[in-house]
Amino acid sequence: MATVEYLNYEVVEDNGWDMDDEDIFEKASEAGLDEEDYGELEVFEGEYILEAAEREGFDWPFSCRAGACANCAGIIYDGEVEMDMQQILSDEEIDDKNVRLTCIATPEQEHVQIVYNAKHLDYLQNRVI
Ligand code: FES
What we know:
By secondary structure, the chain is α+β, with helices and mostly antiparallel strands. The chain has helices spanning 9-14, 24-29, 49-55, 91-95, and strands spanning 2-8, 38-43, 73-78, 81-83, 99-101, 105-107, 111-116. It starts with a strand and ends in a 13-residue tail after the last strand.
């Protein structure tokens, strides 16, 4: 089992926070945000991050659920997150920008930080359905 600390990309955007800032999760934890926008959720063995969010009652974006669009994209802020086979993200997006498709992604560490709802990022627009 792993814990995902999550933050809604819209909050980052609305507050004008920079994704490269090292303290956006700290800022988020002090901002009095709704559970929907910031918090922690457990991901069980064999569960994908999107599934875990849905089990907790959250309404994260998705479309294909199979690694073929960018609707469910999230940015890994801290920690290791593995993905199943996918054909939509470039190596640069995965390795340098830390983008992951939450519908096929699983945490590799006990605690990871993810900015979900990253489909609003400009460079993913052409793959959002
Ligand atoms: S919902 Fe399409 S890749 Fe995850």
